[in-house]
Every structure is written in structure tokens, then in C-alpha cells.
Amino acid sequence: MFFNRKPVELLEIDSVLRDEIPVIRRFTGGGTVIVDQGTIFVTFICNKDAVPGLQSYPRPIMSWSSLVYQKVFQGIGDFSLRENDYVLGNHKFGGNAQSIIKNRWVHHTSFLWDYEISNMGYLKLPKRSPDYRQARGHLEFICCMKDYIPRLNFIDRTIDAVGSHFLVRSMELKAIKHPSGTEFQPSSRFLSKQELEEAEFDSLTGIALSHSLPL
């Protein structure tokens, strides 16, 4: 979930606490997503001048990334960028999030190659949603990529598409070294059980107070 949003607005906290679902407050913007073994992540971490002529603002970055994925989905389904989502036809399959600072930007996507239907019960319907959603519930709004493209095929196509913009080299994560003298301090973190319980309590207290106010 986005760091600047309240858990009670986004999550069915009773169910999350009951089933001990980990909740991560991430540093990038965007919506709330369920992550499991069927999720594929693709992230661009770029210096400001990495893409010639690209302005470091949300809409230009989204437009550029959609051109990359147009190559990936060429001949597969009806791919498009609708508002801030990647869709096939009228159904969302990729949610995007960004973080932009002075000399660098991050754009990452959570792709729903597959998902567990029951997991969608942990999410509330967002108060703000794109117009094309048309108040559809989660299961009517999203689709699975596996119905359109094999997982490894998608990964290979993505690497090829990225290779048209950058020099691509495969590396093991453990081989990536931080510059000497630096220490990585992640700003994304897990929310504690206490934080979730307090968020739920504050919500229930607010409801009780609203019902007790005189007309």
C-alpha cells in the first residue's frame, strides 16, 4: 500500500489480522495490490537523462513505459494504457507506481499473471477509481495474464523490448554490490500488528462518535 494512505481505507483489516496477512507500506505512489506467487514485478530505476528527451514527470514516464509494453503485447490481446493502468480490453492486469526525485525516477508495475480469488477479499473498493472501472468489483475489473501469454514468454518479450532502449545484461541479485561506504536504508516496511489494530480501533471509534452526535 502507498505510504500516504490509511490502512482502514484500503484493507478489510478484520480479515487481514485474522489470516495474518503481511502488509507493506511502500515508498512509491499508486494503489494497493495483493502480491502472491502469481505476481510478476518489473521495475525501471533510471537516472533523469537515461531516456533521451523524456521529462521526469508521472504522465511522460507512464506514456514511455506503455510504448515498451506495446512491443511486449504486440499481437496479444487488446493492450492499452488507460488512465494509470495497463489493460487488456476493458480489464486491468497491471498496476503502476512511481517515485520521482531530482535526478532519478522509479517506475514499477505489479503484473497479475495469476491470482487467488480469495485474496481479493482483503481489499476494499477504493474511494477513488478510474472512470473506466464503472464501479465494477475486483473480480469483474481485473484479468489474468496467463489467459493471454505464458509467463516465460512475457518475461522474454519484456527483456527484448527493454533491450531496444537500454543495454541489457543479466545479473544475479547477490552479485549487485553497493558502493563502498554506503548503507541501504529501505523506506518501505511491514506494518506491525499493533499498527493495524490501532487503525481498526480508530476507525471504529470514529464510527461510534459519528453515531453519537446529536442531529
From TrEMBL:
Coiled coil: none annotated. Residues 5-166 form the BPL/LPL catalytic domain. It comes from the Eukaryota. Gene3D superfamilies: Bira Bifunctional Protein, Domain 2. Pfam families: LplA-B_cat. The keyword Ligase applies. Keywords: Ligase. One of its GO terms (molecular function) is ligase activity. This is Lipoate- ligase A. It comes from Olea europaea subsp. europaea. The lineage of its organism: Eukaryota, Viridiplantae, Streptophyta, Embryophyta, Tracheophyta.
